[in-house]
Amino acid sequence: MFTETTGLMERSATIVISKQVERLVDLALEEDIGSGDITTENLIPPDQTGKGRIIAKQPLTVAGLEVARYVFLRLDPDADVAMGCTDGDAVAPGFVMMEVTGRLSALLTAERTALNFLQRLSGIATHVLSYTDPLQGAPVKLVDTRKTTPGWRVLEKYAVRVGGAHNHRSGLFDGVLIKDNHIAACGGITEAVGRIRRRVSHLVRIEVEVSSLQEVSEAIAAGADVIMLDNMSDEQIQKAVVMIGDTAMVEVSGGVTRDRLARLANTGAHLVSVGELTHAATSVDISMDIQPLSI
Questions:
Q1: Closest among 252, 207, 260, 214 to 232, alpha carbons compared
Q2: 167: which of 108, 122, 188, 252 is 20 to 30 A away, CA to CA?
Q3: Range of the domain at 247
């Protein structure tokens, strides 16, 4: 669905408008337009043209340009869209991110939906960048979680990558992660790992969530491929990393703040997962100026 390309500060990426993204755009337009744009339809002649300029109102990292472009083309397939930057670029206030020329009524009707996508995705990329910058040069990978807006996961995880972090599993379907409730339901880590090992391909990694050094020992003995250290102190993490050694990949999760990242980067852990990359991000300020070209 997504392809990464080398770009500015190695944070640029290209999004493919898949069927899933098309459905999201259609749902967003349907939600906003409903039976029709009662204001625009009663003010603007259908043959009038116009030009819109999408402008950054604050410093931000851009993400979601192609999605915004698709919104305008969905309402006016003949619209001309010119990009002023690419996803992953850092832009300053006043920078013109995109220009759209086409039917004025389509520009007016599509404006809010296009901006909603662009503001949210750029907001995530900008937020994530503040987490990834302190980790430049560190061997640890910063990854997201499934704490995403329902229906938007494919886009929000894309924005995470634009911001310079990495994706954890996309959903329940593409990775085994045995969490505390699974362990309780199965009667223990050993039983849970053994049960799933017999059912999934030998090519599938098995990750186990643990919250104590005793559980770390059990996960090692059970043959877990990845061990997630959940809500552990820095001291516990250091001890767990030594215990695990080369037997499994180590992920740190829970209670991870920006201030703590520098310390965690030097613990020997391979991954640090942070739900705040998506659920705590706020939309950035972007506006659209629209001018008529003909009457």
A1: 252
A2: 188
A3: 133-279
- Which residues are within 8 A (CB) of 85 and not within 5 positions of it... i.e. 6 or more apart? 62, 65, 91, 95, 97
For residue 287, which of 157, 115, 170, 135 has the smallest C-alpha distance? 115
Place of tokens 């053994």: 194
Please give the single-letter amino acid code of residue 49: T
Cβ-contact 15, 157 below 8 angstroms = no
Residue-averaged pLDDT of the chain:
93
pTM: 0.93
Report which secondary-structure segment, H or E, holds 61: strand 60-61
d(CA 29, CA 25): 6
Are 90 and 215 part of one and the same domain? no
Comparing 65-79, 210-224, 254-268, which segment has the lowest mean pLDDT?
254-268
Residues 287 and 271 in one domain: no
Token pair belonging to 163? 């911001």
Alpha helices in the chain (DSSP H): 19-33, 38-41, 65-75, 104-132, 153-162, 180-186, 189-197, 213-222, 234-244, 258-264, 276-279
pLDDT digits (tens, 9 = 90+) for 138-156: 889 999 999 999 999 999 9
The C-alpha atoms of residue 39 and residue 208 are separated, in whole angstroms, by 55
> The domain that contains 169 carries what CATH number?
3.20.20.70
**Both tokens of residue 291?**
């001018």
Active-site residues, by number, are 112, 147, 179, 209, 230
Strands lying side by side in the sheet with 286-292? 80-83, 96-103, 49-56, 286-292
Give the pLDDT score at 134: 79
Asked if residue 11 lies in contact with residue 253, where contact means CB atoms within 8 angstroms, the answer is: no
